[in-house]
Amino acid sequence: MPSDLKKLIADTQNEFRNHPATAQVSFRSSSALQDGFRSVASLRDHRVIIDEPASLGGTDRGPNPVELILAALGSCQEITYRAFATALGIPLDSVSVELRGDLDLRGFFAVDPLVRAGYQRIRGTVKLRARGATAEQLDQLRNVVNAHCPVLDILANPVPVAIDVAIEA
Amino acid sequence: MPSDLKKLIADTQNEFRNHPATAQVSFRSSSALQDGFRSVASLRDHRVIIDEPASLGGTDRGPNPVELILAALGSCQEITYRAFATALGIPLDSVSVELRGDLDLRGFFAVDPLVRAGYQRIRGTVKLRARGATAEQLDQLRNVVNAHCPVLDILANPVPVAIDVAIEA
Fold this sequence. Notes:
2 copies of one chain form a homodimer.
Chain A lengths: L1 H17 L5 E10 L5 E5 L2 E5 L14 H24 L5 E11 L16 E9 L5 H14 L1 H7 L4 E8 L1
Antiparallel strand pairs in A: 1-2, 2-3, 4-5
């Protein structure tokens, strides 16, 4: 599997170099609010249930949206570590991520217009086990991962978001 | 339930006005890569499985991280619509969201350093059914939602992210 993955990455890089149009992709989400604050999101064939804890008015049948943001960042870091470790031939036994996002709820609750609604900051730790890798290799790996992790870029830098509103009869 | 929620929101706003320290909260995610690109994230008592589709080297046992970003935004918009419709006394029968994120995979695959790794843009539509609400009320609702939706703020504006790396023996 690692060698298959290495070949897949190299082949994909060649394909995108030669045909940049094939690198243009879109992902989609379709979600609908159910009772209370519970939402069901469909992502291709996958479903995710989102809710708020009781303290925030929900029924706690799933993680809330800002928790999903952290799960997206953690898993994206992990996938990007494994992809580039494989591509660069750096040994990597395991990777896990602990994250914490700090939020001032006065933003969401419209109590203070100077307080942002989203995370003030996100902090955390990537834990790597990589027997046989040198410190230099792991440094190189960290730098390339942080330069190419899609969700890290999405959070750390602005993404233009345009959402229309359609009123249904 | 709507009137309970209205009271919960008003009580929470009063509490945060009088005691801003109680509005400071943290959310956490703990995730670990399993086989291939599959990760399991724990968010309090909730688990989310993340994977990549086969075309990106995974086994497609869950949505991928950038799809989770869209699910977080869609559900956060929905929850924020319901919360502020309730707080403002604006009728809202249903809310659903369709989103699309455009990505140039040359960024993630390190093919072109000028291409960002994350979404180039996110576009979509919020569908509201709100019998009995006036156009002015729905305009007011849209404005307050977009000013206070945490995930919209997280995506549209930069979030400081600091991730340490710990090497395990």
